[in-house]
What we know:
Blueprint: H1 3-8, E1 17-22, E2 33-36, H2 38-44, H3 48-51, H4 66-77, E3 82-89, E4 95-106, E5 112-121, H5 123-162, E6 166-171, E7 176-179, H6 181-187, H7 191-194, H8 199-203, H9 210-222, E8 226-233, E9 239-250, E10 256-265, H10 267-290, E11 292-298, E12 304-306, H11 308-313, H12 326-329, H13 337-350, E13 354-361, E14 367-378, E15 384-392, H14 394-436, H15 442-473, E16 481-483, H16 485-503, E17 506-510, E18 517-521, H17 523-540, E19 545-553, E20 557-564, H18 586-592, H19 598-608, E21 612-617, E22 623-630, E23 632-635, E24 659-664, H20 668-679, E25 684-689, H21 695-701, E26 706-710, H22 718-727, E27 737-741, H23 746-755, E28 759-762, H24 767-780, H25 783-786
Parallel strand pairs: 17-19, 24-25, 24-26, 26-27, 27-28
Antiparallel strand pairs: 1-2, 1-5, 3-4, 4-5, 6-7, 6-10, 8-9, 9-10, 11-12, 11-15, 13-14, 14-15, 16-18, 18-23, 19-20, 20-22, 21-22
Helix pairs in contact: 14-15, 14-20, 16-17, 16-24, 17-19
Amino acid sequence: MQLDAVISSLPWHMRDAVIIATTESIDHPGPRVVWCNDAFTEMTGYSREEIVGNSPRILQGADTDLETKHRIRDALTNWSSIREEIRNYRKDGTEFWAELDIRPVADESGWFHYWVAIQRDVTARKRQEQEITRRMDLLAKEKAELAKREGDLQLQSLVARHTSEAVVITDADGKTVWVNDSFTALSGYDMSDMIGRSPGDVLQGPNTASSDIEQIQHGLNSKESFSFRALNNRKDGKEYWVSGRISPVFSRCGTLINYIGVQRDISEFVTVSEERRRLLHRLKITTEVAGIGIFELNTTTGSLDWDENQMTIYGMDPSEFRGVMNDWLDHVHPDSVELATHVLEQTIATCQPFDHEFQIVRGDGEVRYIRAFGTAEKLENGDTIMVGANLDVTEQARMLQRESEANRLKSEFIANMSHEIRTPLNGMLGMAQLLELSDLTSDQTEMLRILASSGQSLLAIINDVLDLSKIEAGIEECILETFAPEEAMATAVASIESAAKLKGLRIIHEAKGCMGRRMVADRKRITQVLTNLVGNAAKFTNKGEIRITADFVAGAEIEFRVTDSGPGIPKGQLNEIFERFSQVDGSATRSHGGTGLGLAISREFVQKMGGKIGVDSVEGNGATFWFRVPVEVRTETGQRNHLSETEHVPDTTNATQKYRVLLVDDDDVSADVIARAFAHRSGLAVTRLNRGGDVIPELEKSYFDILLLDINMPGLLGTEVIAQVRASNAWYAHIPAVALTANALTDHTRQYLAAGFDEHISKPVDLQNLLVAIERLTSETSVAKIGAR
């Protein structure tokens, strides 16, 4: 059948779109269009030239129904006519619905050569059907929702009535139609007060912010849900803050019918927030004035936050701040990195507060000192947050450095002056002690007493000034040793024995509770404090007695008490007696001498040891000075007590045991004084050397019970000599050794004890104290320890 015949059989001017396609291929590429009418080109936007030769399927798109396409294919395969509605697409991409009628056309012999497709644009009808369907679905949904709402309304009514939040319902004009009991409890207004009135007109007062009122009105006009906050007034006139949410309610047809407002009392929250705001504002002003920088570090994520002050302290431009931990670490001075990171790690691990100082390098290269303090806490999500502050303490640090250097130089100067004064004073007092052993007339004895007393006064002044300089420089530290309380008492008694004899004073010292017990404590400081108290007692007591007692109290404390029969202390001056330069009265200094520093220094030493010191006195009835310090108590086994309960200093003049003493000192005066003094004691035999290098050879050929060794000698120093002695494998490796030197600082004492000395005695040497030390050290050292003689 000819195409022209098919075309001529169609109405040329029909309004429906018509195409004629070949029957050559059902599948890809599909039937081929050989003709279309003008209505087709108008409906699809394709020209006749664009559509002829292509498949009609050019009109189909991604949303064309797949099942519809399958039904059309099945009909074409079976040479059947088919009518379908299908979603097609115009050339410009817009969709349209077409009612498609496809029929095969046969020739006279019944053979099919062409398909004729007539399509009608039914987009408008299709959309109407879709809209009807949508409305039917919506109606069904609203019907179901209405049924559900009726049930929900009953539940909501119960909830609204019994909820703790205030609920108010108005009509579309904003007039109240219902309030719950919580609203009445909050505002004081009940249902009768509110019906027909606007909640804003009733609740808002003169202090309600106009901006809050405008926000509420704007929200109502928008007919959308919105949140609000406002200051309201109760029925009794009291103000209260509320926050809440207002939601519109629409009918099924979309008409506004109600507003529902839910609000809660936030007065306490607002008060706290306002106080917090004021505090933060004050804190901001304070930190700005004080130059304090605030930081917050999330140690889990590594994020870092600094305020402006912090960036100013570190000299960092805000544009360079990345908000990471390296912003801080990159500015920490290399000398402080280890300390700073250690504190950081410890704070993260323990969440304990920290307070330390370190150095930073500012952005401009300047080195500054920073004090950092703060804490850390773990959040519920597992992160650890460190919050704190930095304060630039560069000026304070430099001031402390200058003060420390000044104190060091002062202490060094005083120590040097002390050394220079002690050296000749050692000869003066030593010779005075030797003369005391001679047969003297009464006039000579009195002159000798004045000479010794003047020398001791000068020595006391030197010691007080030196002690004070050490305290001010902060270099006075505790050195723990094991000793018996009786040893400290013996040294203190020895220091006043001569003065007590001249005044005819009786000295009693008791240690009943200390028998067979030793203690670990700062022997030098305890002895010095006790000596100061005993010296004061001897100074101010002209007749009667001085009683010294020691006892362990409270399990692990030693208490010493010094009681005299002197004039006592006025009640009004008891609280001032331990202050520097304090005396009972102005004349006391002239009558008795002294700097007024002894008791102040004693208090400093006792407090340094963690103890307490005090005085009990009634004017005219003497005084009792006491001090108590914590110690570690140890019980002796198999050692004899050197002092009985009421014995004086051991008298070695008639001792039957002979101690062999090796004395090494290049100062002939000092060595001569000691040698001469020992010569009067039949229990002591002295061998003198003046060079440190001669010590080892002498020990190799002779046995000695004790070694007295000067520190500053030509050739080998005393510390070098004792190092050789202790390092040897000979019998003398453990020989008791005493360092004799004019160096009296605690640092020197620590240095000498660490070098291997057992005792340090500063010059001028008090011979009685030296004898006590020799007695103690030689008694503690067994024959088995140092070898057989």
